[in-house]
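User: Could you check the structure of this?
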Amino acid sequence: MRARQQQPSGFTLIEVIMVMVIIGFIAVSVSPRMETLPEVRAYYASHKLRSDIRFAQMLAMQTGSSTRLVFDNPGDSYSLERDNSGTWTAMKNPSDREDYEVILNAEPYQGVILSNVSINSNAMLEFNSEGAPFDSAGNALAEPSFVELNSKIPPLHPSSDRQSGYCHAMK
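Assistant: Sure, the predicted C-alpha cells are below.
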C-alpha cells in the first residue's frame, strides 16, 4: 500500500498577491467617496432647509397665523418662529418638542456654513396665514432672494408660485 502524500497547507504567493490586489481596488474605489463627505452633508443640509421652508409655510396656512424663518448668518443657524398675538415665539420641533433651531457646522452638518442670506436684503422669511412669503418688513418676496450654504453647492432661491402660492426653494 502506498502512503498518502500530505499536501502542504497555506496559501501560494499568487493567492496572497491576488487578495492584496483586490483589497487595493476596494481601497481606491472607497477613498473618493470619503473626500466628498462635506459635500454630502451640505446636500443633506440644503434638503433640510428646503423642507423647513415648506414646513413653516404649511404651518402658517394650517394655523392661520404667521410663521417665519430667522437666519443667523454669523452663527451658522436658523430658527422657526410663530406669531402669537403680535409676539414672535419659537416654534417647537415636532420630533423632540424643543425649540426649532437648526445649527449648522455641528453634527450632523459639520463643515456646512451659512454663507449668505438675502431675502429682500434681510435675513428673515415670513409666511402670512395664506402661506404667501414676505420679508420681515411685510414686503412681498422679490427676486433675487437666496440662501447659500457653503459656496460649493447652488444657493436656494425661495420664490412663490403666483397661482398656487406655494413657496419653492429652488436650486
